[in-house]
Amino acid sequence: MGCQSCVLFLLVALIYGTTKLQVIAKEDGYVLILEHSFNGEKFVKRGEIVLSDLKGEQATITQDPLSDEEKTALLEASKENRMYKLRVWSQVDGVSSNSNSGEGCWITSYTYAKFLSDSNLSDIITVNMDGLGNVVSLNIGTSLQKSDFVIDNDEFDTTIEVKVPNQAPVPDTHGFLHKMEKEKREKEIQAKEPQSVLGKYWIYLVPVGIFLLMSNAMQQQPQQ
User: Fold this and answer.
1) What does pTM read for this prediction?
2) What is the C-alpha to C-alpha distance for residues 32 and 133, in angstroms, rounded to an integer?
3) 92, 54 in Cβ contact below 8 A?
4) Which of 20, 48, 135, 216 is most buried when burial is the number of CB atoms within 10 A of its CB?
């Protein structure tokens, strides 16, 4: 009984971890699992976004073709003016911690299902990241082409964009410290250089000179 309980516990843990794990590390990069829903409740895998690195500087997308059942569900959602939902997991880095600790959350984007069917499965997916491997937001956009509730394609024609914030200007701390050190050395050198008598005692010689000039001027005045 004890062994059976252990096996059951391991199976449950394995199933839970596999369900929650939405980011897979591979040799050629990181794969972000993309899921979608036609009814707003049940999400299924739509495809994979492959990131060359955790900064998301380069990304490609691979997607499975829609089944007849999924195309029917999309058309029904379009006719009923329901929402089409797309989601990804928020954290790309720390794969093992995400799957076990439950950290992170789902990042979801919405659009009308009719917009997607009208575009004949042509859309643009934008993933905004923080530059550290975390997904900040997700956006899906389409371009309207027709409105007859007919989907000719079985596969998505998707343009994927991954955006990261631009790095703010960094202060030139090294240059500033180098300048301060240079000025400090110049002052030290000037302090060590020998000075002339005039340079050392000018503060005393100037008042004496002024006094002598005033005395000579007074002596040169004609006596009345």
Assistant:
1) 0.60
2) 11
3) yes
4) 135
Q: Which amino acid is at 30?
A: Y
Q: How far apart are CA 86 and CA 36, in angstroms?
A: 4
Biggest alpha carbon–alpha carbon distance for the chain = 136
| Cα 22 to Cα 50, 136, 150, distances in angstroms | 12, 15, 32
Query: Can you tell me which residue has the tokens 């005395």?
Result: 215
CB 87 within 8 A of CB 42: no
Per-residue pLDDT of the chain (224 residues; tens, 9 = 90+): 444 444 333 333 333 333 333 455 555 677 889 999 998 889 999 999 988 876 666 788 999 899 999 999 999 999 999 999 999 988 764 443 444 445 678 999 999 999 999 898 999 999 998 877 788 999 999 977 776 777 888 899 999 998 888 766 666 676 777 788 888 888 877 766 666 666 667 777 778 778 788 877 777 766 54
Q: Are 76 and 187 in contact (CB under 8 A)?
A: no
d(CA 202, CA 219): 26
